[in-house]
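Support case: nicotinamide-adenine-dinucleotide complex. Customer-provided input:
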Amino acid sequence: MSTVPAQDFAGRVALITGAGNGIGRETARQLAARGAVVAVNDLKPEFVEAVVAEIRAAGGQAFGVVQNIASREGIQAAVAQAREQGGRFDVLVNNAAWVRYQAVPDIQPDTLERMLDVGFKAVIWGTQAAAAAMDPERGGAIVNVASTAALRSTLNSVVYSGIKAGILGLTRAAAAELGVRHIRVNAVCPSAVPTEGTQRNRNAERDALRIARTPLGRLGTVEDIARGICFLASDQAGFISAQTLAVDGGVTFTNL
Ligand SMILES: NC(=O)c1ccc[n+]([C@@H]2O[C@H](COP(=O)([O-])OP(=O)(O)OC[C@H]3O[C@@H](n4cnc5c(N)ncnc54)[C@H](O)[C@@H]3O)[C@@H](O)[C@H]2O)c1
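Agent response - structure generated as follows:
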């Protein structure tokens, strides 16, 4: 079997928010390996440079979009740059998030606002900007990165679970509205996977508990999640819209 991935994204332009690290970075790598021209967004220029360099070194096509997407202007500018520099606009992966876990009495206005700006409002403004940037005939795909926390809640996650559950609702509503323009909108729900962003909430004991409760008997990886995102963005999912795909080793809908 060939180890070279199919070039099924050849000629397509894909913008991934928060692609400087973690799940976003791996999604950028996989889309580029499948032929996409990847617009690598992050607010940290050094992360963007590193990911773009890595993709180019592997023979892929990428350019950097350094932009804070926590405002309507920011995500609009990111989409506009991707469209202009790439020459077209096909795929948006709304991946960026800024996350704090706080118990109900500890929730503060500044953390709530920032989580909403990066993790929720940017998905709405991004959907608006991407839909306008996509070719009306050809359409495109939007993949929103939610979380299994949207489906099954845990402690200290009123804000996080609320935002991610909201993303599933807006995914379905956007799919309803944008289907007429051949735009598919779907969401992935990753379970906990080791990344920079989750480091502070992980320890060996918690990981062991998660593994014991997971039918597939291991933690997920960023590669696992990125494969789910790429599937939903690809033509293989050409008749799939308004869906939520849990990429979680089976942990969310089972009870071990
Ligand atoms: N890692 C997990 O276990 C897990 C589980 C479920 C869901 N998720 C979701 O997956 C997504 C990615 O998570 P991750 O763990 O890879 O995160 P991460 O923290 O490792 O990376 C996120 C990236 O987003 C960037 N970013 C943050 N705010 C930004 C902004 N305003 N503008 C542009 N870039 C910004 C950061 O600089 C960082 O490079 C998030 O939506 C997260 O909620 C992650």
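The pocket of nicotinamide-adenine-dinucleotide is lined by residues 17-18, 20-24, 41-44, 47, 68-70, 95-99, 118, 145, 147, 190, 192-193, 195-198 (CB under 6 Å).

Case will auto-close in a few days if no follow-up is received.
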